[in-house]
């Protein structure tokens, strides 16, 4: 019997996977980003369909309890995502500065 | 020698007028104030006092403002660029000491240092923070310097073209040093005196900001910047 949580998780993960695919088709996402996020959501789909999979994966990775898999690897994925976001924001800041500086120089200064 | 004094400014309406006036009394007439989107009348006061005023339409930080001023000075045909703070902490009398080695062709960059004189008037807590910064730069980039954060410096136009400031905020000071070392630009530290007033201490960067600067420098190094 499939639990309600499994169903919701499955539906949500499939929805997000299709959004990810759509973003790739619309060129809103690079291939590298698509592969990264697809791997995560496909894993979530697989776990939703077969929750025992977490236990199998965890044991292969040397984690005795399946429930510990999520915090360990979830944290790594979260930190990597944060790092990627930091780089993006930094690049945006640099681009903004470039624009502001060019406007300042193009507008020429004022002097009495 | 065509000398440009670059004065980045953000909300310094109380001090910018007297800073420009003292620079003019010192005989420096190419004063470029870069108004970093001040919300007070910094730009207007600088204009009325006779500086050439460039304006950022969005606040981007002292590093970005310096780069704007430096780029302008280079296109204006400068021979030497001096960076000078707008809060009244720097002394106009120190500029000549910074210029002399560059005029003589000994070096291309001179950097003010608060720690080369026999006496040092830096507040104790700031001294500890600056010492930590010195150690950090030594470990990160191998930079040996007595004062890594002093904002009064002079560059020959050749050095100014060679140094590319990419960091917008206060990290730019460390970035300038890194480039001087990496590109083997000839430099010399010159003793300077900083006038710490209650106004300038209140306006200056917080000691805690040093952690944010260190974090930014580490992240830039990790991302290959």
Largest interface: A-B, 17 and 25 residues
If helices are DSSP runs of H or I spanning 4 or more residues, what is the number of helices of chain B? 9
Total count of strands of chain B: 7
- By DSSP (H or I, 4+ residues per run), the number of helices of chain A equals 4
Report on the structure:
- The complex is a heterodimer of chains A (112) and B (225).
- Chain A is an all-alpha fold and 112 residues long.
- Chain A is 81% helix and 0% strand.
- Chain A contains 4 helices and no strands.
- In chain A, 8% of the residues are buried.
- Chain B has 225 residues and is an alpha/beta fold.
- A 7-stranded mixed sheet of chain B has the order 3-2-1-4-6-5-7, sandwiched between helices.
- At the A-B interface, helix 4 of A face strand 3 and helix 3 of B.
In short:
With 112 residues, chain A is mostly helical. Chain A is built from 4 helices and no strands. Chain A has helices at residues 4-25, 31-49, 52-60, 66-106.
Keywords:
heterodimer; A: 112 residues; mainly alpha; B: 225 residues; alpha/beta; 7-stranded mixed β-sheet; 9 helices; 43% helix; 15% strand; globular
